[in-house]
Every structure is written in structure tokens, then in C-alpha cells.
Fold this protein.
Amino acid sequence: MSSNTHQVTSLTLLKYRGTRQKWRGFTLMQRGHGLLRDLPGQHVYKLMGTGKGFGLRDGADLSSYAVLQVWDDEASAKSYFASDSFLRKLTKGTSQSCTIMMRCLRAHGEWKGVNPFAVHEDLDAENHLIAAITRASLRISTLRSFWSYAAVAQKPIHNATGLQFKLGIGEHPFLHMATFSIWNSLSDLNAYAYQTKEHLKAIKLTKEKSWYREELFARFQPYQMIGAWPGLDIDLPSLSD
């Protein structure tokens, strides 16, 4: 894990409406690597699709995309969101867009060989919201076994106490998948993760069957947001504040 304790993470969600704009969004995602690779103050970026459900088992949602960016500090992030030309291209033609700013609470595991997230030194003790990112790269030999249990493992989340928002994200619908969720509190997240029998069994099977080539679990404190997204209704200051 990086030692940069001023690091912040942003997740930008983009929704396009109509065939022309959906195609535009898709092509921008392909071009994005060249345009995002060398941004000042950006530590890591990930261009991802979104799922029709929680996780990507139900297939990709070709109208929506996610851009995850890890910044050396808040000033670098705000400079990008205030003036970057590629960001303006991404949001042009969207029916909805939203950016959530977060500070890392903890993270373990690896994403393409590294853990990109560093624990922030300045957390707000009065802000109890928790965002979680889980990411896994699956072994091809275990795809059938994993996906046959995925729906069972995720079933409890649909009625989970304290869940504010959930979304499947990832680089590939079946091989490199991730989830993003926001909870009212750490205790609510832990109750789902460690007290539901389906999820506990999934943890056990993950070890027994070696489903993952690589996995990462990270928790964050969301602290600013701009824009709107279906189902996302949390009270946070604007990114521009």
C-alpha cells in the first residue's frame, strides 16, 4: 500500500441515452487510456463498464460507464474536475453523471499487481458513511464454479440493512469484475459481509476452490459529491465546495 496519506479517490459514473450517445460513450472509453495516462497528480486510473445488476453476472449495461481515479492529493483532483477537456467530452451528451470523492479507510489485496489505495490521515469522525470497492480477477478454470454461486452469495444484499447504493463495475464482464457500494455505517457493511450465511459460504468457497487469481477489498469515507445518479441519495457537500 502506498504511503501517500493525502491521497484521495474519485469515482465518476456516466450514463448515456440513445444509440448515438451510447456509441459515443463506448468509443470515448476506448480512447480514454491515451488521454488519462499522464494526468498531473493522478496516481492510478481505471476505465470500467457497469453491470445490469450488482456484479456483472447479468451482463454489461452498455449505457453506463465508471471512471475510477486515484489522486496524490485533493488539489490535483479538483484541478482535473474543474478544467480537464477530456472530462468535458465524457460528460457531454450524458443523461446523468455523478462524481463521488472518497478518502481511504483501509485496503488489502492487489489490483493488477499493486494496491493503489493509501489510508488517508485526515478522516472525519462525524461522517459514518462507508463506501466499499471489491475487485477480483477470476481464474478461467473456475469461471463456471464461481458464477454458479455468485447469485446466491449476492442475494442477501438486496435487503441488507443500511445499504444506500450498489453497482457492479469492472474491466470485463466475466473475468475482471468489481462491486461498489455505499453503507450507512461500518457495522452495516460488516453485518452483510460477515454475518450472512450466503456471503460467509462464498468466502469459504473462494479459499477452497481458488476462484481468484487476484483480489482487492477497500473501504472509503465518501466526503463530497457532484451530480446525480439513479438510486444514489446521500447527503454530502458539493465537489465544488
